[in-house]
Amino acid sequence: MNKVFDDATTALQDVQDGMTLMLGGFGLCGIPENGIAALVAKGVRNLTCISNNAGVDDFGIGLMLQQRQVRKMISSYVGENAEFERQLLSGELEVELIPQGSLAERCRAGGAGIPAFFTPAGYGTEVQDRKEVRWFNGKAHILEYALTADFALVKAWKGDTDGNLIFKGTARNFNPPMAMAGKITVAEVEELVPAGALDPNQIHTAGIFVQRIFQGEAYEKRIEKRTTR
């Protein structure tokens, strides 16, 4: 199976309106910049996007929100995007907010084939609304269902032609669990090497989870808020 594609445009050519997408990253760290740019250029609409956050107004998923491509966001933090806020308050955008740990576990469970799990996070809040509650060891837990997606878009530091991935530092974040949970996982990497060139002990995501891979280009790697002493 040849997994290597020339670029994001060809790797995502069969993404269609109405699909559910997972997009790795945390803030702007480790986001699939090339994949997002290809989706904006393609103009697909009515998407459900599962991502820790919604980017910023002029970068990341924020670019897709500007073009009204997203119907629903499933996220844990959305505080850096004024356009997101505007669309939410005006009723243009459907939003499901999830505790961050629950979001990570729902993605991981989806990739592991676990349909649902109980967690105490969110009990007694709006997160609990209409969810089954059970008690374990004297503590209330709510039922959360696993998440999967038609496509998962992830970004890694290095990958090989078999789809094995290595992430760098905090850019690892949501990328590995989302890579497991996509029916088709598309990985963009800064460096693409031949199969067998990676140290097996350093691989974070095995190639069995990755169906398509390409070498990205022109990464900006923006920082939302630069903090100095």
> Major β-sheet, in short?
8 strands, mixed
Instruction: Specify the CATH architecture.
Output: 3-Layer(aba) Sandwich
Oligomer: single chain
- Structural class based on helices, strands and sheet pairing: alpha/beta
CATH superfamily: Glutaconate Coenzyme A-transferase
Mean pLDDT: 96
Helix share, percent: 10-25%
Number of domains: 1
What's the alpha carbon Rg, rounded to whole Å?
Answer: 18 Å
User: What's the total number of strands?
Assistant: 11
What would the principal axes of the Cα set say about the shape?
A: globular
Give the H and E element order. HEHEHEHEHEEEEEHEE
Question: What is the level 1 CATH name?
Answer: Alpha Beta
- Low-pLDDT parts are none
Explain what you see.
The chain contains 6 helices and 11 strands. The chain is of the alpha/beta class and 229 residues long. It has a single domain (8-114, 147-215), classed as Glutaconate Coenzyme A-transferase, CATH 3.40.1080. Strands 1, 2, 3, 4, 8, 9, 10 and 11 form an 8-stranded mixed beta sheet that branches. Strands 5-7-6 form a 3-stranded antiparallel beta sheet. β3 (70-75), α4 and β4 (94-97) form a beta-alpha-beta unit. α5 (100-112) packs across α6. The longest helix has 13 residues, at 100-112.
